[in-house]
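Session log. Operator J.P. requested a structure for one protein chain; no other inputs attached. Running the standard single-chain path with token output.
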Amino acid sequence: MAINKIQEFIRTGSVTDFVPEGPNHRFIDESFQVPFLIPGHTYTFISTNIRGNDGLPSLDDYVAGISKGKKPYIDNRPIFISLGQEGPFEIGLNLKVIPQGLRRTFIRTYLRAIMPILSNLTDSKGEFIEYPKRVRLPEMNPFGGINRNFIKSISQFAGIKFEFLVDKYNREEMRYLGLIDWPHVHKVGEVDYSRDPSIATRSQISDFLK
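Structure written below.
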């Protein structure tokens, strides 16, 4: 039962029998394309404008306020929790640029917080109602509360400025936008993205989060 596996991950912090398809498995094969974003849900896409890290500031300069403007990392294939819209942009917390151990802790905290919502979206066998039916249910409405304020509240609890990892995404740049559905969300915490070539940085994100 899918809901039981998520509850097990919340308790133990590990995914039973998970074998990634290489260190940079991105769950593209386990996602399916969607026409729109729903707050609180996890998505991935491939940027239509592939960019490198030329001219980006270091994390130290960015955090110290010496360098302003662009963030010192670019992820051309993010995995992010949607936090709603901000003007013409979609905003989301990029999970891939969180170090693996901290990412696992964050996902457990996040899933624990929304477990009451998830429990209302399963059938009698504990499997999730299929997506096309699920999105029409009134039980989906509480996901609207998974927003920037929610991320700030978790940041305060953990002493980590997750807000730093909230990005703006231009919908026109999203190619193959796909939903990573609940049976796979907890697996994101098991993957090591440290060698992912789609992430361009001049400093380790973990330096900022120590």
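Operator note: Strands lie at 32-33, 42-47, 73-75, 79-86, 89-94, 166-169, 174-180, 199-201.
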